[in-house]
Amino acid sequence: METIEATLTSLKDEQKVNLINGCFSPSEAATIINSLLQEKINFHKLQRLSLTEGNNQNTCEFDNKRIDELIYEQALAKEFFSQARLDGKKLVVKSTISIEIEQ
Prior knowledge:
56% of the residues lie in helices and 20% in strands. By secondary structure, it is of the alpha+beta class. It has a two-stranded antiparallel ribbon with strand order 1-2. The longest helix is centred in the middle third of the chain and has 27 residues, at 26-52.
């Protein structure tokens, strides 16, 4: 508990989270990446829905650019994992999230 408290009090303007770091089968990697992408897509859909909730006058016009980008990335990833599976390859997946305080 002391370590966590000491770390929290000494936080700077940036935090890094080592989210994924390992060697995976194509099926495992596909599950991990697809889950992350789907969660992010759902986040944007919920944000979009909350903008119009209770507003009958809203025209329901949205910028779906980010959702479309994520769906496209999902399709590319699916092809990539399928090819790796066909080739009998393992995949190394690394992902670090960088969080910064906006200046």
